[in-house]
Structure formats: structure tokens, C-alpha cells
Design a protein that fits this description.
Elements (H helix, E strand, L loop, with lengths): L1 E2 L9 E5 L4 H7 L4 E9 L5 H8 L4 E7 L30 E6 H4 L10 H10 L1 H6 L2 E6 L14 H13 L13 H12 L4 H12 L1 H32 L6 E4 L5 E2 L5 E2 L7 H4 E10 L1
Parallel strand pairs: 1-3, 2-6, 2-7, 4-5, 4-6
Antiparallel strand pairs: 3-10, 7-10, 8-9
Helix pairs in contact: 8-9
Length: about 290
């Protein structure tokens, strides 16, 4: 299996599907896209790890980001003080020339996440920047939770709100991004129970809801909604790809775990197959 080699590979446009597993993608992509699919090994098992290890120089990219960890606010990851960001000093705006904070401008209060059509709208509204850049990345939040059919995103909502607050103040004052009582309690719990399977499942239950868990079990409920999220994202990818002239690849920053080796969701430096095996599709056309 080849290494990811994200920047070293030949492409003009890279579509990044956040937390997209290779196996689920390989099962569904042919309903939407045509092309040659490879399985590649990501350099990280979470967005902060992947980004900090991938973008190490200054890169002439137009980066449309649905993920708040990759932002233009000049905040180092280790100052975000939220779970997976801890310990990384990397700052997105120091390495990526032009970042569009779609996680902020395209936020949907009803869905409590960044829907994929927001990324498309931002891309089409900034074609001059795309033309000026050497290459372009469109980073969709899906199939990453929260799940669009539920519209009850909790974790991402807290991250998004916190980063917006910190972006409006001097981030050197030590206040940190997640300053609410809920955020503080969650950090304490996550820190104390890091690696404990029950704690990881509790975080996922926030996104799934009790009815789905009781009906299909945690793994079944999560995978059903995850595949649905991926299909919704791929519909927007098709609309984007139809308008592009150049080499287009569809890939992921990392995968997602559904109980494999006792891991749920995704965590830094947890290099199990479910979290590092990602798709690499060079697109030939759409269905």
C-alpha cells in the first residue's frame, strides 16, 4: 500500500473528505465518480496530525476549509486546547498561502455543522483566488460527524464556537478556545479517560442519539449515518468536479474507527488501519 504523498502527487485540485475510510468509500464511490482508486496510508490519524506533518513548508494553495483546525486566524493548534489539537505547535496560516474559513462563513445553525454545499459556494465565489494559486484544496467536513440527517452536532459546534471567540481576541492571553463550562468538563473527562473505550463511545453517542443506538447498536448506527454523510458529500463533489478543468483527486486526511481494536472515532497518533487507510481516487468523470 502506497504512502499518502499528498503534496508530492500530481494534481491540480484535491478534494479532501474528512475522516473518510477507504473501505466505505470504495463501496460507494462508483455511484458518483469514475476513476482509478488506490488505497494509501495517511501520515496521520487526525486532522491536526495530518496537517502538521503534511504542510511543513510554505505552500501556494487556495485552501477551502470546512475543518476549523485548518483556519486563517493565526492560532497554533496547541493553543486551541481541544482534544486532538493538543501538543501540535503548527499554525495553518504560516504554511498555507490562502485559507478560506468556510467552517465559519458556511456554518449552518440548523444542521450545526458545515454542509458540503457551503464549500462549493465558497469555491465558486472565489475563482480568481483559485486561478492565482498553484493548486487548490477543497476540504469537506463530511463524512466526519456530525451526521447531516440528525442536525445535532455537539462536538463540532463547541469547537467552531470556541475558535470564533478566540479569533476575536488576542490568542496569547491564555484564555484558550473552549472556555465554557461544558468544554472544560469535557476536556477533563477526555484527559482522564483517554484511550478508554467507554469514554470514546460516550462521545460518539452525542452524535448518534439514543434511538439509533438502541435500534442498531453503536457500530451499526454510526456506520449507517457515516455512509449517508459520505453519500451527501459525494453529491456535492460531483457538482464541483463537473466544473473543473485539470487533474482532480479525491482523498482523505484520515479515516474513522467504529470499534476496531477498541477505538471509536479518531485520535492523534493512533495508527490502526481504520484510521490511516484512505482513498486516493484520480477522477476521470462523473456518473
Amino acid at each position: 500500500m502506497a504512502d499518502h504523498d499528498f503534496l508530492e502527487s500530481d494534481w491540480d485540485y484535491a478534494v479532501v473528505l474528512d475522516a473518510c475510510r477507504y473501505d466505505v468509500f470504495s463501496d460507494v464511490y462508483e455511484d458518483y465518480l469514475e476513476g482509478d482508486l488506490e488505497k494509501r496510508t495517511s501520515i496521520g490519524s487526525s486532522t491536526p496530525e495530518w496537517a502538521s506533518k503534511t504542510f511543513t513548508d510554505v505552500h501556494d494553495l487556495a485552501y477551502f476549509s470546512g475543518n476549523p483546525f485548518i483556519n486563517d486566524l493565526g492560532i497554533p493548534l496547541n493553543e486551541l486546547k481541544w482534544g486532538a489539537s493538543a501538543g501540535y505547535t503548527w499554525t495553518a496560516s504560516e504554511h498555507i498561502a490562502n485559507i478560506f474559513d468556510v467552517w465559519q462563513s458556511g456554518w449552518d445553525d440548523d444542521l450545526e455543522t458545515v454542509p458540503p454545499d457551503s464549500l462549493n459556494e465558497a469555491f465558486f465565489a472565489n475563482r480568481d483566488a483559485v486561478e492565482a494559486a498553484d493548486r487548490t484544496v477543497v476540504h469537506y467536513m463530511q463524512p466526519h460527524a456530525p451526521y447531516l440527517s440528525r442536525g445535532k452536532g455537539q462536538k463540532l459546534k463547541q469547537i467552531q464556537k470556541g475558535i470564533k471567540r478566540q479569533g476575536a481576541q488576542d490568542h496569547s492571553d491564555g484564555d484558550g478556545v473552549i472556555s465554557s463550562a461544558v468544554g472544560g468538563v469535557r476536556r477533563t473527562v477526555e484527559g482522564a479517560l483517554d484511550g478508554v473505550e467507554l469514554a470514546q463511545k460516550m462521545g460518539l453517542w452525542l452524535e448518534l442519539g439514543p434511538r439509533a443506538v438502541l435500534q442498531d447498536g453503536t457500530r451499526g448506527a454510526a456506520m449507517n449515518l457515516y455512509e449517508e454523510n459520505l453519500r451527501i458529500a459525494l453529491e456535492s463533489v460531483v457538482e464541483l468536479v463537473e466544473d473543473l478543468d485539470g487533474t482532480v483527486v479525491v482523498t482523505a486526511d484520515h479515516g474513522e474507527a467504529f470499534g476496531e481494536e477498541g477505538v471509536w472515532e479518531h485520535h492523534v497518533e493512533t495508527h490502526i488501519p481504520a484510521l490511516v487507510e484512505v482513498p486516493w481516487l484520480e477522477v476521470d468523470g462523473v456518473r
